[in-house]
């Protein structure tokens, strides 16, 4: 009988040890499964994060590839495409960088107000002025082509017209790494040849709807700020012409504030369809 109880106890002890070992193995297996699930979850999250910038990049590319405004080549006003906000105006500054362009760019940057700076080639012939135009571009502003010497293109032979336009494109590309997307002829006077060059260079030919800062009566900050905002020519899609001038620089912040007070959004030129075909 004692032998029977001894054998029974031994069997029970072995069974208990086996159960404990199995439980331990089950726990280890469960722990490993949990760890594996955690690793897979973490990896999935990392993959999701890696995919996120790609998705955002794709969306940004789609945004760039989908312009929201087109330029009316008869009135030079900006017209909405689809459901874009019609109550917009475009700011443009010619004859940059003369003396005030960089300060004007900094003012506009502070106000979160986009614009196009149209440059004259003879104003970026020095290393100092090259630095200025690069800084304006680095602030986020588009650089447009306004010819080399600001000559009336209608008075020049075709060869000279080509030099006036193409030399600026080459110079701007060297400075900022890209060619201008917009072309504005001096005095708004184009020729068939200048139009062809602009088209060949994939530049959108752009004049303006109104401007005043070359008229003597508006050569103060107060006067130019008042007329640019209160003119009857201000309407949806207006294309505003200003220049690198002391008085325009002085009135610039008031112009921006006044336009916004009237409910106008300042149009980002990156949203303009620049296709020339």
UniProtKB/TrEMBL annotation:
Residues 87-267 form the NodB homology domain. CDD domains: CE4_NodB_like_6s_7s. It comes from Siminovitchia fortis. One of its GO terms (biological process) is carbohydrate metabolic process. One of its GO terms (cellular component) is membrane. Residues 20-71 are annotated as: Disordered. Residues 1-22 form the signal peptide. This is Polysaccharide deacetylase family protein. PANTHER family: CHITIN DEACETYLASE 1-RELATED (PTHR10587:SF133), GLYCOSYL TRANSFERASE-RELATED (PTHR10587). Keywords: Hydrolase, Metal-binding, Signal. Pfam families: Polysacc_deac_1 (PF01522). Residues 21-62 have a biased composition (Basic and acidic residues). One of its GO terms (molecular function) is hydrolase activity, acting on carbon-nitrogen (but not peptide) bonds.
């Amino acid at each position: 009988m004692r032998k029977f109880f001894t054998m029974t106890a031994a069997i029970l002890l072995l069974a208990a040890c086996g159960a404990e070992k199995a439980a331990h193995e089950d726990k280890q297996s469960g722990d490993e499964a949990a760890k594996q699930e955690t690793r897979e979850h973490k990896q999935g999250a990392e993959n999701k994060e890696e995919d996120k910038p790609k998705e955002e990049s794709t969306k940004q590319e789609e945004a760039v590839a989908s312009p929201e405004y087109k330029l009316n080549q008869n009135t030079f006003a900006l017209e909405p495409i689809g459901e874009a906000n019609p109550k917009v105006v475009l700011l443009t500054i010619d004859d940059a960088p003369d003396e005030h362009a960089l300060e004007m760019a900094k003012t506009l940057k502070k106000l979160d107000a986009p614009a196009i700076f149209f440059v004259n080639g003879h104003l970026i012939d020095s290393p100092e002025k090259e630095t200025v135009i690069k800084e304006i571009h680095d602030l986020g502003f588009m650089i447009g082509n306004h010819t080399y010497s600001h000559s009336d293109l209608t008075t020049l032979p075709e060869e000279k017209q080509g030099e006036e336009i193409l030399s600026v494109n080459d110079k701007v590309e060297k400075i900022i790494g890209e060619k201008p997307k917009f072309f504005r002829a001096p005095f708004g006077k184009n020729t068939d040849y200048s139009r062809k060059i602009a088209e060949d260079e994939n530049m959108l030919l752009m004049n303006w709807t109104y401007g005043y800062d070359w008229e003597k009566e508006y050569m103060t900050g107060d006067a130019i700020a008042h007329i640019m905002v209160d003119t009857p020519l201000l309407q949806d899609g207006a294309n505003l012409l200003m220049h690198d001038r002391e008085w325009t620089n002085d009135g610039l912040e008031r112009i921006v504030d006044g336009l916004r007070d009237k409910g106008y959004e300042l149009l980002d030129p990156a949203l303009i369809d620049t296709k020339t075909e």
